[in-house]
Write a structure and sequence with these properties.
With 396 residues, the protein is α/β, with parallel strands linked by helices. It folds into two domains: 6-188 and 374-393, Rossmann fold (3-Layer(aba) Sandwich); 194-371, 3-Layer(aba) Sandwich (Rossmann fold), CATH 3.40.50.2000. 43% of the residues lie in helices and 15% in strands. The protein contains 19 helices and 13 strands. It has a seven-stranded parallel β-sheet with strand order 3-2-1-4-5-6-7. The longest helix has 19 residues, at 234-252.
Length: 396
C-alpha cells in the first residue's frame, strides 16, 4: 500500500489518448492510488463497434465488462472517491453507483463543460412538424427511459453525489449537481485547456486564418450509438460547405483551416468534404486562439472562441434546419448573439466578408460565467482543485 487515497475514474466510452490529457491523468496518478475503469463494453457495448478502441494507454486502465467484474473489483479495493464520468443514464449505471455507495465509496461529479441547451419540448406539438421532430430526436423514447430510471432510483438508497466541482451557474438546473453534499467552485475541461494553451502557445498579433470546427456531421458515431438520424447528407453538405469556404476566402482574403473532429477518417474523406484545405488534429484550442473568425455548429469547442473573444459565425443548411440537431445549433447562437449563416444560399460567403464579425462582449462574458468557470473559483489547475476536494471531503 502506498498510503495514497483511492480515486476511481468511471467511464462509459473507450478510454483514449485525448482522455489521458483532458482528464489530468499525469497529475492525478501522482496524488492518488488511481484506477481508470473503462466500462464501455459493459455499459455502452455499441461504442466498441463504432469507435476506435485504443491499445492500453497506461497501467491504470482496467477493462470492466460486466456487473460481476465490477463487484469483484470494488470488493478488493479500499473505499475512496469515485469520479463519475458515466451519469445515471441506464439501469446498469444506477446499479453501479449503488454498489459503490454500499461499499463506502463517495461519489464525485465534475462539471466538465456545459453548453447552452435547447428547450426541446417547445418544438413538440400536435402538428406534423412537431411529431416528426419528436420522432427524429427520440424525445418520447428518452422521456420514457428517464421515467424508468427515476422509478429505479426511488427504489434504491440515495445516490446524491458527495462532491461536485461546479463551473459557472448552469449546474443549478441539474438536479444531480444540486443534490451534491459539497459544492466546490471550479472550471470546465475547456477552461483548463485554455489555461494551458495561454501558458504554452503564443499566437501572432494579427490573427492569420479563419477556422471551421468540424463536428463530423455526416457520420458522427453518436448518431448510430444513440439511434439518431444523420442530420446532413455527405454529398449535399460537402458541396455547400466548399462553396461557402471558397466564396468567403475570396471576399475576406483569409484562408480557412479545419479543426478536425477527433475520429479516424481517410485523407480521401477530408479531401471530399473540405477540398485541399489544411486539416489539423488535436490543436483546436491553439487554432482558435490564432483565428480571425470561427465557424461552428454546436461543438463544445465554441468555448475556446468565447474565452479568447474570437468572433463566431454559426452555420446552418436546409438539411440541418429540418433535422433534430438544429435546436442544438440555435441554443448557443442565440445566447452569444452571433450571426447565423445558411451555407446553401449562393451568396452565403459574402455575409461575413471584409467587414468582419462583431463580438457581443456582454453575451460572451455571460456565456463564460454561465457555462465555463465559476467567478469565485481558485486560480489553480482543475486537478489541484479536485485533489484538494478529495483529500478534504473523501473517506477518512
Amino acid at each position: 500500500m502506498t498510503g495514497k487515497k483511492t480515486l476511481l475514474l468511471l467511464l462509459k466510452n473507450p478510454f483514449s489518448p485525448r482522455d489521458y490529457e483532458r482528464m489530468g491523468i499525469d497529475a492525478l496518478k501522482q496524488r492518488f492510488e488511481l484506477s481508470i475503469l473503462d466500462c464501455s463494453s459493459w455499459l455502452m457495448p455499441q461504442t466498441m463497434r463504432r469507435r476506435k478502441v485504443h491499445p492500453p494507454i497506461c497501467d491504470e486502465v482496467l477493462q470492466i465488462n460486466s456487473l460481476k467484474a465490477f463487484r469483484q473489483f470494488v470488493a478488493k479495493t479500499p473505499a475512496g472517491v469515485a469520479m463519475d464520468y458515466v451519469g445515471q443514464f441506464s439501469a446498469q449505471a444506477i446499479i453501479m453507483f449503488h454498489v459503490l455507495k454500499r461499499a463506502g465509496f463517495k461519489i464525485a461529479v465534475l462539471d466538465s463543460g456545459s453548453v447552452a441547451l435547447p428547450q426541446e419540448w417547445r418544438r413538440v406539438s400536435l402538428s406534423w412538424q412537431g411529431l416528426v421532430y419528436a420522432y427524429k430526436s427520440r424525445v418520447l423514447a428518452r422521456a420514457l427511459s428517464k421515467l424508468g430510471r427515476n422509478l429505479l432510483l426511488r427504489a434504491l438508497p440515495d445516490q446524491s453525489p458527495d462532491i461536485a466541482l461546479v463551473a459557472g451557474t448552469s449546474w443549478q438546473s441539474n438536479p444531480r449537481f444540486v443534490s451534491a453534499g459539497t459544492k466546490i467552485p471550479a472550471h470546465s475541461f475547456d477552461y483548463e485547456r485554455y489555461r494551458r494553451v495561454n501558458a504554452e502557445f503564443v499566437s501572432s498579433d494579427e490573427p492569420g486564418w479563419a477556422l471551421y470546427i468540424d463536428e463530423n456531421l455526416p457520420s458522427h458515431e453518436d448518431n448510430g450509438e444513440l439511434g439518431y438520424d444523420i442530420p446532413v447528407s455527405f454529398e449535399r453538405f460537402s458541396v455547400s460547405l466548399k462553396r461557402f469556404f471558397d466564396q468567403f476566402e475570396r471576399e475576406s482574403g483569409l484562408r480557412v483551416r479545419i479543426a478536425a473532429y477527433p475520429a479516424s477518417r481517410s485523407e480521401e474523406y477530408y479531401r471530399k468534404l473540405f477540398g485541399e484545405r489544411d486539416v489539423v488534429f488535436g490543436q483546436t484550442a491553439e487554432l482558435i486562439k490564432g483565428a480571425a473568425v470561427v465557424f461552428a455548429h454546436a461543438s463544445t469547442a465554441i468555448s475556446f472562441a468565447v474565452l479568447w473573444r474570437r468572433p463566431l459565425v454559426f452555420l446552418a443548411s436546409e438539411e440541418l434546419r429540418n433535422s433534430w440537431y438544429m435546436p442544438w445549433v440555435l441554443a448557443p447562437q442565440r445566447v452569444l448573439r452571433a450571426p447565423l449563416v445558411d451555407i446553401d444560399e449562393e451568396a452565403a460567403g459574402c455575409v461575413v466578408g471584409k467587414e468582419g464579425v462583431v463580438v457581443d462582449a456582454l453575451s460572451y462574458e455571460a456565456y463564460e460565467n454561465t457555462y465555463l468557470r465559476s467567478p469565485d473559483a481558485d486560480e489553480a489547475s482543475l486537478w489541484d482543485i479536485l485533489a484538494k476536494a478529495v483529500l478534504e471531503h473523501g473517506p477518512r
